């Protein structure tokens, strides 16, 4: 192990001083607090405030993580879109339990959701697909996500070919492109605190109500 790894990384630390999270700050429904924190992340001009790390598990029990963008949320669910032939989509077909994590570390905050993912209907998918920029619609046709390719040029050539093909008229929705709605039953809010005494609150659904616990950091 290099000297940098032994001494440099181990010594990297800072204090969390932006403020705490108290029970009086909590909302009855977790999505209300999430909406407030997301609004504040946008107002702070964080890069990609809707970016979330989603974790799925393969048939061998191996977790996989990747970043996707949140596209819609309501009191019960979060929505994202993807290629249905992707690794994440295949995992969710076998095991629909999923974790979603928002790492707003510039604000010394994290939010984690646990729940189950369900495929969106074609009607819901096509409505969003045609709201995307035209080049993004065409790009959805180009990639067989997670498949092995030899060079980037293959993707670029296919994109130009399809751009010519779809130069007039509406870009059709690919049959292999869709979305997932994650119905969550657990939400954790984390706010950094001084001396590593971070504030953590866990919302867990109990029927139609939410039970809230403070967790030790």
Describe the structure.
The structure is a single chain. Strands 1, 2, 3, 4, 5, 6, 7, 8 and 9 form a nine-stranded antiparallel β-sheet that branches. It is built from six helices and nine strands. By secondary structure, it is α+β, with helices and mostly antiparallel strands. It has helices spanning 3-8, 30-43, 87-94, 122-129, 134-142, 152-165; strands at residues 51-57, 63-69, 72-73, 77-83, 97-104, 109-119, 177-191, 199-206, 209-215.
How is the topology of this model organized?
Blueprint: H1 3-8, H2 30-43, E1 51-57, E2 63-69, E3 72-73, E4 77-83, H3 87-94, E5 97-104, E6 109-119, H4 122-129, H5 134-142, H6 152-165, E7 177-191, E8 199-206, E9 209-215
Antiparallel strand pairs: 1-2, 1-5, 3-4, 4-7, 5-6, 6-7, 7-8, 8-9
Helix pairs in contact: 5-6
Helix content: 25-40%
The low-confidence parts are none
Largest sheet: 9 strands, antiparallel
Structural class: alpha+beta
> Distance N terminus to C terminus?
30 Å
Radius of gyration: 20 Å
Our count of helices gives 6
Quantity of strands, as a count = 9
Averaging pLDDT over every residue, what do you get?
Answer: 91
Order of helices and strands: HHEEEEHEEHHHEEE
The general outline is globular
Q: How much of the sequence is in beta strands?
A: 25-35%
Cofactor: FMN
Pathway: Cofactor metabolism; pyridoxal 5'-phosphate salvage; pyridoxal 5'-phosphate from pyridoxamine 5'-phosphate: step 1/1; Cofactor metabolism; pyridoxal 5'-phosphate salvage; pyridoxal 5'-phosphate from pyridoxine 5'-phosphate: step 1/1
InterPro entries: Pyridox_Oxase, Pyridox_Oxase_CS, Pyridox_Oxase_N, Pyridoxamine_oxidase_dimer_C, Split_barrel_FMN-bd
Binding site for substrate: 71, 128, 132, 136, 196-198
